[in-house]
User: What shape does this take?
Amino acid sequence: MTITLNGAKCVVDDGTTLEHLLLSVTESLTGSAAAVDGEVVPRKTWPRVVLREGQAVELLTAVQGG
Amino acid sequence: MTDDPFLIDGVELTSRLILGTGGAPSLQVVDEVLAASRTAMCTVAMRRVDPRRNGSILDVLDRRGVRILPNTAGCRTAREAVQTAQLAREALETDWVKLEVIADEHTLLPDPVELIDAAQTLVGHGFRVLPYTNDDPVLARRLQQAGCVAVMPLGSPIGTGLGIANPHNIELIVGEATVPVILDAGIGTASDAALAMELGCAGVLLASSVTRAQDPAAMAAAMAYAVDAGRLARRAGRIPKRFHAQASSPTEGMAVL
Assistant: This one.
């Protein structure tokens, strides 16, 4: 199935969890947060959240700013 | 200045100088600036994870023992700002947020309507909100009424280095504030930071004036001195301004020559 991760189309296996997806793009999830279809998803639920076709995932972290 | 603690929401910070980390050319420069400024709190922005990025600002701040204040920079609506704050809380495990809701990219001035809306929502969700606001005493009052733990009026627009454009308004805000007033944005050089403190601000938040200076670490040290000097001067009580001169040497006992 196809989902969107940080604005880019991404093909993943059916049943892929949010945690699995996020670990595919970054080694450490410390200091990061995720939203699916505009809703913030609490970190502790990431291993249980199974992604669905067409969902948009945003993965953010802290950068220099302000 | 241990007899003069700087408290925000009951939390004591060891420095009245808060640093933005944006604009520094590298994490190495950020590290040097942190050391030279002796700051206790720094802002960070929330952006998409970039797998190509080397190193993390969080590691640098953690090594220096600096408190993290996430911001909502770039947000144009209350909805965006609230969501960004929620992501920051999830990522960084802090309820504190520097709330920024800007009206346009040209001025980067806060949008007062969206700002108040976002502040009310975030306070309702348990955030400790430090809003970046216009130098408007009425808006500052409204933000306090909304439950913000500090108000952070701009001296002049972000990144301009124009200093404090309306010192009178800053004094008005300080005069009626019941929470710390932190001068945020527009600082160009050390005298601007000292003036902010002389006007009665509890702290100064600055970024570009240090991170984009020719020698960032040297300017960071200058800002630390300026904030301390301005605070001391404020507490010392300056002399009133006079129209005419007043001799400091005795007028009695002059020789007849």
Remarks:
- The first helix of chain A runs from residue 18 to 23.
- Helices of chain A lie at 18-23.
- The first strand of chain A starts at residue 2 and ends at 5.
